[in-house]
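Hi,

I'm pasting everything inline rather than attaching a file, because the server keeps stripping attachments. The sequence lines come first, and each chain or strand is labelled.
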Amino acid sequence: MTVRLQVQDLTVTLGARRLLAGVSFEVAAGDVYGLVGESGSGKSMTALALVGLLPRGAHATGSVRLDGRELVGADEATLGDVRGRGIGLVFQEPATALNPLMTIGAQVAEGLRVHGATTAVEAETAAVLARVGLPAASVPPTRYPHELSGGQRQRVAIAIAIAARPALLIADEPTTALDVTTQAHILALLRTLVAEDGMAMVLISHDLAVVAETATSLAILQRGEIVEQGHLAGVLSRPAHAYTRQLLRDYQLPELPPRLDGASTLLLQADALVRDYPLPRRRFFGPRPVRRALDGVSLRIADGERVGLVGESGSGKSTLVRTLLGLDVPQAGAVLIAGEALQSSGTDSSRRLRRLVQVVFQDPYGSLNPRHSIARIVAEPLYLHRERPPRVERERRVAAALEAVGLGGVNGHARPQQFSGGQRQRIAIARALIVEPRLLVLDEAVSALDASTRLQILELLCRLWRERGLAYLFVSHDLAVVRAVTERLLVMHEGRIVEQGPTDRILDRPEHPYTRSLVAATPLLDRALARRGAEDESR
Amino acid sequence: MTPAWRPPAGLAAGMVVLLVYAALALSSLTAAFDAALTIDIGARLLAPSAAHWFGTDALGRDVFAMVAVGTRASLGVALSSVGIGLLLGVPLGLLAAARGGLVDDVLARGSDLVFAFPSLLLAVLLSAALGPGALTAVIAIGVFNVPVFARLVRGNGLSLMQRDFVLSARVAGRGTLAIAFDHLLPNVATLVVVQATIQLSLAIVAEASLSYVGLGVQPPAPSWGRMLNEAQTLASGAPWLAWFPGLALAFAVLALNLVGSALAARFAARVPGEAS
Amino acid sequence: MNPASRRGGGPHLALALLLLASLLGAPATAALPGRTVVLGLALEPPNLDPSATSAEATQDVVYGNIFEGLTRITEQGRVAPALAASWSVSDDGLRYRFTLRPGVRFHDGSPLTAADVRWSLQRARAAGSTNPLRELLAPVRAIHLIDELNLELELSRPVAELLTYLGWGNLVVMSAATAANAATAPVGTGPYRFVEWRKGDAVVLARNADYWGTPARLDGVTFRIVPDASSALAALLAGDVDGYANFPAPESVAALALDPRFTVAVGSTEGETLLAINNARKPFDDVRVRRALAHAVDRRAILQGAMYGYGEPIGSHFPPHDPAYVDLTHRYAFDPATARALLREAGYPNGFALTLRLPPPYYARRSGEIIAAELGAIGIRVRIENIEWAQWLEQVFKNRDFDLTIVSHTEPMDYDIYARRGYYFGYSNATYDARLAELSRTREEAVRMRLLGELQRQLAEDCVNVYLFELPKLGVWRRDLHGLWREAPVQGINLSGAYLDGAATVGTSSTAAGPTGRVLAIVALGILALGALALRRHVSARHLLGRAAALALTLLGASALIFLLVNVLPGDPAAYMMGLNANPTAIAHLRAQYGLDVPAWRQYLQWLAGFLHGDLGLSYTYRVPVADLVGQRLAVSLPLALYALALSLALALPTALAAARRPGKVLDSILMGLAQLGLAVPNFWLGLLLILTFSVQLHWFAAGGFPGWDAGLLPALRALTMPAVALAVPQACILARVLRAELGLALAEDYVRTARAKGLSPVQALRRHALPNAMIPALTIIGLQFSFLLAGAIIIETVFALPGLGRLLFQATAQRDLIVVRSVVLLLVAAVVLVNFLVELLYAVVDPRLRDGGAR
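And the predicted assembly:
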């Protein structure tokens, strides 16, 4: 196989800061080269350096050769020619990567025209779009980006990148913003295109599993340096560098503690919940259409039970959570906490019931009021007591709650901005714990954290469960995490719970077709490595 | 991102100019200024000199003293009208965001109504209805400021309402008012401050415009707008009459704009809830 | 969307373009050749019917020029024959027999007969008459027609001044056939005939070729309304006007007198300027207090400070140029010590507080400031309250709710007002009344002189008012203009003998009405075209209908608010319109005529109903349909707004693009710094500086005024250029900054990176991707700016004396013409709402995300 991209000693500096330090690697035609690292490790900077689109003030040295042509230090005309024709780029956010004011056809055609195509541009545009799975018959090129789904938009972005048949395709976190099933389709498409066109490809991802499923070789980046690189199976099965080993270790999720036995009283009960959201009227006098977010959802959670809830975005998970918390009122059905319906807020009974169920949200940055002190944030649920405890008692409880989440001794006057994401999530948990709830709703509570922090939070949750016998409703899109933390699983799809049962059983032997596709699409490191190992042996 | 065309010195420069204005306004209360403002027909239309830095006007009054006293009217009217906007608009916007429903509807319709009037038109109409004067100008400009702040607060408040920390507060049993004032207010405060500087500069121009056409501050109290009107016939022979009040006006607006831009740039780096 | 509506867009657009082309290609009517002059007028006449109003501006334009009476008053103040060639008076003074000139014709060609004279006088003295001199005609018992050219007036008691009265503008002769339209289309017998009245801008007269006397030597006269004292000088210097019969800025007169281009003729008027005192109110009912005021006021300082030395001090209510004048100016010498002593004597050792209400004329406002300072010196604390004419008439003149005021009484021989009970001075003195009655009976000149002297002394002795000065007539006109009157013994600007020597003149005249209809049609078609375009682009009809409904609701709310505000405005419009000497019956009559006597809610509903039919009502002051007025003004304001908007865009767009091309570099810093500076310059100050630079110094542009579209596209655009620049520069700075910021945000967007990754150059990415996206938020600003430019131009229209909508509104507010105010405000509000709607349509056209009823 011919080597198409050669990177040697690529260094990028921004003022006195070194963003990349001596990065070297090669990619051959038909190869997919994975670049793995945490955010800030220099992955994206590498991609931008390759095409000369570094941010203002950044400066690159070293060598980047594409089919023998040197790109570092090349003039703008050369680079303009290389971009699109020599190197195609796909970025992370399909929602913003396309110009909202132009039709998708025009955006693809523009890439062709800028490289000199004048004749039959429209036919070629249609052909390119068809190649990425958007045939004109079902998705005409006259569509605008907002009329497409996220996966379709990413296909358009890929079409733009490959339109001029580049020698190298760089995909920077191309599937991070997508659901797992869509992710599987996009990754498959990329693999097919690479094989068909004999392109070289650089796949950038923070997700080891995604890279493991797609790439042939990989490099591990840490703080702008490649700490380890080589053939995929080789690196992942015999990691040489400590950082690689740590990355792999982070994938080992905590062992599920055994289920507590004993009488389990019913804590939360939802019966046949229905929630519709009105949509704009299609016709002026026509009936107002609705989107049914919850379509007869029933569930029960017993004291001390750890229940998982999985589903893709738009499946109704968030609506269900909001309804269970009493933040949203269903059109039909009822939510009972400890056998009682939640009254309107401000009543004694509502305060008592709300104390039983607390919540931790996904975004550690958005869930803490940036203008409040940590102590005030953690103490806030104490308003759920009819008589708010006196100040000394409040301070004691806040300290205890922070202690319980492993933040003993932090300064209560500090603001959330002074804490890391993981610490903030601990603070959010402390806030939930301060009223000693029986059920903790964890709404994607670890999704926004990097792998090592996620592991720590999951361990904290396990410890809390052991110590307090808390029940969890663990909402997530990440099957691996759900398997590690929960013992019973609910699968949501299009507003319904399509399957439920013991977590292991569902993930190992899914029955519902949707669950099956979900499980199949989820990239798993072990599975990928096993497959790659088999491929290597057969080669 | 802080674009480089916002001079980093803008805040300091703007604040210094504003302090100078404040000092002028205060010092103009002293007796020395009363003397300078006495009508002295013999000393009229003198060009700027050491005795009269900005020259004298048609009645022999010292233009510098008049500009200084005019500062009181301009800043007074501007501060009061923006104050009205803040005091009424911010709580209204908070409630509309936190509660929605009727308050929100009333606010939406009400601000539609006020915004349907081109900016100075309402002021002219009110001045005509209430009679010209500083108080009328304050009310007329203030009325316009209410929906400005209310909408700003409501818009940002609504997006805050979707944020997890507000949801957490609701789970923590906090009521509408508590959420509005404990959670929304601190997070929109910076935006409100930035907007207030913008509104202040607009109010200063509006007051001057009203005074220019005789609907604002009434004589004998000097005001920049009125001075400019009186300067118009005399300006060919006594151009200083047109220059100094206009410059005073422009510098005040410029200073406020600089402060506003600088504050906006500083706060932009700390938009609520984002990583710092 | 159905196919039909999709195709709809094309033809509409084509039609709109066609219309636009026809507007731009509109043929320019040539100005009248030769010798016409343009005279400046400070106040616009409320209407052109001299028999219905005592407004001085009406007399200025029509008296002696369009209309004539039986007699006329010469520049020297003597009675001379006019339409009556001769007359005889019976010995008892009760019968006046007039013989008319033969062969006199009205401008419409009909001959003047004794019947016309009788009809005119009967109309003036009829029961429902609104003629200000109606009461003076009360002694007329009957008017007998003798034949075609002879008639006789029979009196119940002698009226010595009758022949003088008949020479005043209110008693001119009109024909029964045309008098009803005199307010807008006056038809008289004078040396000039009426051509056109461009409301807010000018009244145009042309020579009457069939004049019975010496024909006028000028081809025509245009009275241009220059409402601001401030812009008067600029207009004169810039050559917009050839002169002023009465220049409203005395401070400039001395400089003008030195200017070889101008003649300055300072004369006298019949205007006694008073510090009027409310004699009926405490403490002014005490003559000692009134005298204290008189001693405290330094007339010389006032004449110097306010009038720049023009005008003559007076000591009583009598013009110094009259033979019967007695100099009483030394009766109350300027003496603060005496004044304080008098106050002490009256029981006010520490003074007291009072309010000085000042009407708009420059002499009142300026004198007021000085008097306030002078009274302050004797311990009287004066609060100045500047009020409009309407409020002055309502509060001071009608309701007598005032302490002091300053006003000039310009009617000749008006000393009878001191005998009127209920007059606003609150003065009453039986001796005075008796002498006045005796005067009216007396025809013997020597006795009359003695009586007039006694009247003057009585007023001075009682110190009814503080008599300040006789208002000067500050005539300023081009040196080659001759024959204008220096003195003004009677209201009116007499141009019968005016002529120009030498060169042809400036000034234009036209006969056709402005292209209002065309302008409105273009706007309507523009909206239609946009709508069609929007529909083509799949904007859901439901969405549009919903927005339209919200629009209608806003307008309804606005109309209610406007009606409420306007109807609590102070002042009685009927009283204002009728002028100083109006009688209550006439006012009541007028009120009924305009439907002001029905309940407010019915007035509101009638107004709304009319509005929906395009009937905006009838203007009080102009007595023409408001729709016509608005149309004329819109023909100035709309093009001005569009011009300014185009300039703003033309300035902002390249600036923002140039700045955004290299963010943070020197050019960016410089451009945005300049924008920051420009933003701080208020537009009216900029306008002032522009006038000073380009009109007064460089003479590149006219300082103000508008020649009308019929003068041709280029002259009209030229007149709008400086105002448009003054409006556009600050707006352009805002727009440039917003666009620059939006471009900065757009440039940071992923799609720009995608575009660059495709191989587009930075400039291509900026133009093709960042700019369209940055324009979307900028659209909102542009929409806001348009409505600001349309209505907010009030100030700029004042600075440049443009007859636009904002100016109309401002004048109408001052004139208390509530029919105009409420309709214009609602119209402007409708324009704003409509523009917002258009912007929303435009959003849907340019932003595909908003089609199909999507929300933003």
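Chain A has a mean pLDDT of 86.

If the labels don't parse on your end, tell me and I'll reformat.
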